[in-house]
Amino acid sequence: MTKPELLAPAGDMEKLETALDYGADAVYVGGDQFGLRAMAGNFSVAELARAQERVRERDKKLYLTLNAYLRPAQMPELRRTLEELRPLDLDAYIISDPGVLAVVREVDSARELHLSTQANTTNAQAARFWQETGVERVNLARELTLEEIRHIRRETTVGLEVFVHGAMCVAYSGRCLLSTALTGRSANAGACAQPCRWNYALMEETRPGQYFPIEEDDRGSYVFNSRDLCLLEYLPDLVGAGVDSLKIEGRMKTLYYVAAVTRVYRAALDAYAADPAGYVMDPAWLEELDKVSHRPYDRGFLFGAEDALVHAADSRYQRTHDFVGIVRRVDDGGRLLVECRNRFFPGEELELIGPAMRQAQFVAGELTAEGGGALEVAQPNALVLLPGPAGTRQGDLLRRQKVAG
Ligand code: SF4
């Protein structure tokens, strides 16, 4: 059995460190330009150089997303950017536009290339086509079934990557003009405003302002709204299918999301690789994934299109926990210096999570400002000292169960 790589998203430097700490083998990031996810806190060339050093020190990999479809006027800028990037030791570029591939080949011919899901590769012939152009790995379309993934594996030698977790489009990934039409922000330039998740109503032409709700249930309508992908339960099938890399979606997502999701897939993958025959999925892992803000999970198209038809059930975000802070330091007396992300009070029940599925419940004790002085509340962005559970380490995260209502 070949153990696939676990590939996690990183919207900025802090998330990159978090992804590595929480078990990613490789991280993908976006540059200042040409990477989809225009608002994901993209990396400058200098930051990419620093990111690459950090990744190399830890013997992991770094891929740069250059997967927008470009217009003629953008090509000279692409060439300049690629020349600037050429000295960096990035492990691969993720591309989808054949024009971008051609320019990379001219400017930086030795660079490894991975094909983005945006290219919608759905068959072995397409995978082989891309391999012949020099692409070393193909991220398969999310719309494939497990059987189709197995077939493509049998019929090709190119590296195969699949998404295992995260948001899905209601179109083939990125092949959607809804955002461009309604907001002028193009999904293909990384600026999707996600209008597929807005609320819609029906209006008769001669009655402006009279909105008739389109109701699938008592809370509204979700005709455009996709559930989130979660293939944790099917990791053994994907490993058995010969997939080389398992990718987590979400360069726009929070640091907490990156940590919580990456550590679960790390634990499952390691447990399966250590003992494939005796492997049983720990239900606690799924519970952990439920503690991250998400729409109801779904297995997408893995077992066929029927399964992926529009669900009438609610597909709004589910959020059971709030991320409240990051442990920046643990002092000799076991006090934690926490950078707060959400308000919390002394006496509140908190939960600490760390890499390798470490976690502990505790009650927040006395809160002290970093510079001294008791606090009645820990405010967002403040640095606060408080006693913490034994074994806490720098980089651990604190969360709190969301109060109902
Ligand atoms: S509007 Fe929705 S379906 Fe279309 S690209 Fe954006 S997220 Fe995907």
End-to-end Cα distance, whole Å, is 48 Å
Q: Give the strand content.
A: 15-25%
Based on the structure given, which CATH architecture of the largest domain is correct?
Alpha-Beta Barrel
Oligomer: single chain
Strands, count: 20
Tell me about this structure.
This protein is α/β, with parallel strands linked by helices and about 400 residues long. The protein folds into two domains: about 5-175 and about 225-310, Alpha-Beta Barrel (TIM Barrel), CATH 3.20.20; about 320-400, Beta Barrel (Elongation Factor Tu (Ef-tu), domain 3). The protein is about 25% helix and about 20% strand. It contains ten helices and 20 strands. It has helices spanning about 15-20, 45-55, 75-85, 100-105, 125-130, 145-155, 180-185, 235-240, 255-275, 285-290; strands spanning about 5-10, 25-30, 60-65, 90-95, 115, 135-140, 160-165, 200-205, 210-215, 230, 245-250, 295-300, 320-330, 335-340, 350-355, 360-365, 365-370, 375, 385, 395-400. The strands form three sheets. Strands 1-2-3-4-5-6-7-11 form an eight-stranded parallel β-barrel, surrounded by five helices. An eight-stranded antiparallel β-sheet has the order 16-15-20-13-14-19-17-18, with no helix packed on it. Strands 8-9 form a two-stranded antiparallel ribbon. Helix 6 (about 145-155) links the parallel strand 6 (about 135-140) and strand 7. The radius of gyration is 22 Å and the shape is globular. The termini are far apart. The model has no long low-confidence stretch (mean pLDDT about 90). It binds iron/sulfur cluster (SF4). Iron/sulfur cluster (SF4) binds near residues 178, 187 and 192.
